[in-house]
Amino acid sequence: MNLQNIPYEAALFEKAVGLYQARNFSEAEKTLHQILAQNPRHAHSLHIMAAIAYNLKRLDSAEEFARRAIAADKNIAVFYNTLGLICSTQGKSEEALTNFKKVVELDPNHLDAILRIAQIYVQQGSVEKNNSMLESALAFLKRALDIRPDENTYLNISYILQLQDNHAALIETGKACLARYPNSVRTLLGLASSHNHFHQYEEALEYFKRALAIEPANGEIYAHMASTLKELGLVDESISMQKKALELLPDQPWIYSNMLLSMVYASSISPEELADTARLFGKHIADRLIRNRPFRNDKDPERKLRIGYVSPDFRSHPVSFFLAPVYQCNKQNFEIFAYSKTQNEDSITNFIKPLFDGWHDIRFLNDDQTADLIEKDKIDILVDLAGHTGHNSLPVFARKPAPVQVSWLGYPATTGMKAMDYRITDSYAEPNGMTEHLNVEKLWRLPDIFCAYLPHPNSPAVREHPPFEDNGYITFGCFNNFAKVTDPVLQTWAKILDLVPNSKLLLEIGGINNDKTKLEILTRLTQHGFSPDRLILEQRSPANQYVLYNRIDIALDPFPCNGGTTSFDTLWMGVPLISLAGEHFVSRMGVTILTNAGLSELIAQTAEEYIKTASDLANDRERLKKLRRGLREKFSATPAMDQKRFARNMETAYREMWKKWVKTSS
Predict the structure, then answer these.
(1) What is the pLDDT, as a whole number, of residue 636?
(2) Are 272 and 421 in the same domain?
(3) Contact of 586 with 562, CB cutoff 8 Å
(4) 41 and 182 inside one domain
């Protein structure tokens, strides 16, 4: 190039651009200063100066140069794009949005600006739960697809549709992406997840298998596929899949949690193996995170205590229905704080928020930030309401942000963590000496029962007479998660039906309205001796929580994982429950619920006794009618539903826990 024919300013600028592209920022700046000394409004030089300052993280200087460039020439899209990037990095989302929109105004096909506008709308829409912002983000992303189809754009659209719970559109988008990118594992996993949402488990499994064929060493595929298998009731297969996932991703706490939850349901897993696996979670994940530093909490044993509750389920969820005693605590002696990881807040969330003295949304905080917040709040006793269930905060508890930490309600076994001090139980579920070896935590046995039941205010009335009087046959039923219905359970129930002529079994199962899933489940049921004409299979739905009970005469508790909320619902709806007593908490929830309800006669000690208890009751129609008569009223008068009594028991427990900590830490 003959520089003699190029104006001096243009030659210097070309040199500066070359230096900038070579990332020789210091020399580029020197050259640009030469230009600006002669022409302070040289717009492109000002813009390159802004870009250099941005790269060097000198954001204030970058903003100043970008604004000077725009002032010198207001019609160049890239200037606004750079200012938008700077503002976005500074956290000035609204200013960034304004500048990116100006870019698109000047250059309607500027893909980077279009995607960044969508990104801002997604961030704002997800944080503020603003659907109009999410719709705006969708519009810009679809515009980006028209300009240049890209897998990431499809995936971003899918993310928004997931936030909107629009799984039908999510499947449509996933299929469109898959048609263009048939080997996209992320898209295959997204499609599997969406089919899971609709209980289309067989379809989900097909997508998982396709993903595994592409990436056979991807641990996430095994982990997510395991959850689908569990929903189909194939718990042993689910556990095997989760073990494979852990081999590939040994440091992922959520995989441990998923596996432990499946193990709770499995008849093939002994209580000892369940406890040992939880201890492995502690050893390999949780115990390494503990913070060894002194607490600054006031050690007065009698002062007002600050109790923190951590949960992803402050919403229409069984956990929330057992929290009523928490809100009834004596406010002279206790302050209560919520740390909510609730993904989809609802009317229940809005109702309970004002009942807490402090409410923190921790969804967008990492584990360290959440632990810091709890320490800053000077929480004395921190209560985990999730255990190894979905979206839990066990890694926060692992950091030990409170002097006393307690596991209660959400998960029916040990967390396996040294940082968890106590697990709340009772002497019926866990008699002294029975399960201490199965728990890392100290067991704190409450008087009466480990929780108190509060039914939904809109629950229906109990039917006036048993269903058998209309049907002419006995209907047994179970409305627990189908994953709890293990093969030994099915074998036992089949024997009960054999002993009760013409009787039927009503089950509520997720996905049963899907032909492929129904065929899979019916095949399994018939293999265990059930004739299809003696089965009544209903689609699992929140709307069924109470109504199906008015269609059954006797409820059958699954084992080894008994019903929890479902068992309380059963008795509230006036239906007798037959339960088999096991040897650890999860298999003895029926024992404590029935004992507290005054129905110990319905507790069996062996599978044979379980069969006899259920069949004898079914064949003695007068006894069955007598047992059902007034059952709701009788149940309402027991400790299992005495909210005030339970609240005082919890307060006493908290005070004693605190005193023990004060004594040992002084």
Answers:
(1) 97
(2) no
(3) yes
(4) yes
Taking only the tens place, the pLDDT of each residue in 340-368 is: 999 888 899 999 999 999 999 999 899 99
Whether residues 487 and 348 share a domain: the answer is: no
Burial 245-270 (b: 16+ CB within 10 A, else e): bbebbeebbbbbbbbbbbbbbbbebe
Residues in contact with 106: Cβ distance below 8 Å, sequence separation at least 6, in sequence order: 75, 76, 77, 80
Classify residue 366 by burial, with Cβ atoms within 10 Å: 0-12, 13-18, 19+. exposed
Domain assignment present for 548: yes
Alpha helices, H only, 447-544: 468-471, 487-499, 515-527
Residues above pLDDT 90, as percent of the chain: 85
Do 560 and 497 have their domain in common?
yes
Maximum distance among all alpha carbons in the chain?
113
Same domain, 86 and 177: yes
Q: How many CB atoms lie within 10 A of CB 633?
A: 10
C-beta separation of 424 from 402 below 8 A: no
Over 411-454, what HEC string results? CCCCCCCCCCCEEEEECCCCCCCCCHHHCCCEEEEECCCCCCCC
Domain count of the fold of the chain: 4
Whole-number Å distance between alpha carbons of 185 and 613: 51
Sign of CA dihedral 69, 71, 72, 74: positive
pLDDT at 7: 63
CATH number at residue 91: 1.25.40.10
Are residues 618 and 633 located together in one domain of the fold? yes
DSSP 8-state secondary structure symbol assigned to residue 504: E
Looking at the domain assignment, is residue 190 inside a domain? yes
Contacts of 568 (CB under 8 A, 6+ apart): 453, 455, 593, 640
User: For 511, left (φ over 0), alpha (ψ -120 to 50), or beta?
Assistant: left
Q: What are phi and psi of 109, to 5 degrees?
A: -105, 20
Per the CB < 8 A criterion, the answer to whether 398 and 289 are in contact is: yes
**Containing structural domain, residue 620:** 468-641
Per DSSP, the three-state class of 509 is strand
Q: DSSP letter for 472, please.
A: S
Instruction: Say whether both 56 and 203 belong to one domain.
Output: yes
Position 430, amino acid: E
CATH number, domain of 603, equals: 3.40.50.2000
- 504 closest CA partner among 548, 463, 534: 534
Cβ-contact 253, 388 below 8 angstroms: no
Place of tokens 């073990």: 243
The three-class DSSP label of residue 230 is helix
* d(C-alpha 624, C-alpha 475), whole Å: 12
Q: Give the list of residues 6+ apart from residue 606 with CB closer than 8 angstroms, or none.
A: 580
From residue 73, give the alpha-carbon distance in Å to each of 15, 52, 569.
22, 19, 70
- 227: tokens are 């959850």
* Geometric angle at alpha carbon 60, from 56 and 63, rounded to 5°: 95
Residues 517 and 620 in one domain: yes
Rounded Cα distance, 558 and 472, in Å:
25
Would you say residue 221 lies in a domain? no
> Would residue 457 count as lying in a domain?
no
Tell which phi-psi region holds residue 416, choosing left (phi > 0), alpha (psi between -120 and 50) or beta.
left
Low-confidence ranges of the chain (pLDDT < 70): 1-8, 127-128
Output DSSP code: residue 284.
I
Euclidean distance between CA atoms 422 and 431, whole angstroms: 16
Alpha-carbon Rg for the chain in angstroms: 31
**Sign of the CA dihedral running 618, 621, 623, 626:** positive
